[in-house]
Design brief:
Elements (H helix, E strand, L loop, with lengths): L7 E7 L8 E7 L11 H17 L7 E4 L2 E2 L9 E7 L4 E8 L5 E9 L24 E2 L5 H7 L3 E4 L5 E6 L5 E16 L5 E17 L11 E4 L7 H7 L7 E5 L7 E5 L20 E2 L5 E2 L2 E2 L15 E2 L11 H19 L13
Amino acid sequence: MLSQLLPVVLVLSSVNHPAKATATVVLPLKRSFPTNNGVEISQLEARDRVRHGRMLHQQQHNGGVVDFPVYGRSDPLLAGIYYTRIQLGSPPKEFHVQIDTGSDVLWASCVPCKGCLIRGGLDRIQLQFFDPSSSSTARPISCSDQRCALGAQSSFTKCSAENQCRYTLHYGDGSDKSGYYVADDMLYDIVTGNSLSTNSSARVTFGCSTSQTGDFGMFDKATDGIFGLGQHGVSVIAQLSSQGLIPHVVSHCLRGSNGGGGVLVFGQIVEPTLVYTPLVPSQPHYMVNLETIAVNGQTLAISPQVFKTTRYRGTMIDSGTTLGYLAEEVYDIYDILLRTLYMKKKDTSEVCSHENVYI
């Protein structure tokens, strides 16, 4: 809590010359908020936005980086998803789309859409549908278009009788989404070196979904679509990068506390406290090398082969998945550790349960 913060004094020591005495300068740091009353969340959010701008301003590529607002939270009992707002078409229409680093395609529900909800319960979002006929700049992608071939890298594609490049997307939870690819304008905010935000637009290829099954039809998780941020050429990050508009870097911070939210930018976040780990090269998804797992400070005795990246195994970074999933061998050893901790604590009437031991 802010009221528990202690006064801070910054002390700077300056040495002008080895032969001279050291000068000490004391700079008091004043509080931005008083300690005798609470702070509105809107005030904290305003300060976060300013800090976010400072983090971004050093990273520039042709004038700035693309900044998206982030909503949602990690609690699986409250949908457990993060989403952002995008604007598509002319005139532009706003859509709320789930942020997903585990897939590549940006898609929005279109009219008509079989199996699509017209109302949802996620943060009282009013669901929207993209209508290509209502956008003066929308154009369907033909089967002979090179952009259809890019879509085929990330989805099952086929040619319709109208020469439309149609797709079907299969997700890990068993959900399916089908439709056709279109090209249209996407509006976005550019953050420049002086932390100012300006509007810009670019032509992107995305999915116009006309049919859905599975969890996409769940009332409490319904959004207007999915923002696939994977590595293949059909992803928006790859498209804008190939046009020379942005760096081919995506930075995504998921805030788990204080109401959720976070950061999503096309560009690199300047934050000295970040800890980096390399991605496994030549993989279809964002894979990292998981080495060990510790529970309550005790490293589990798991063979490194369990975490080795192969064609069917590995550790994938997926912002669209609520829970963390581990190989079966990890759960077996974890269960043994829990039983061992339980036996050690039993004599002192202390019980170690799943609720207070975390990976």
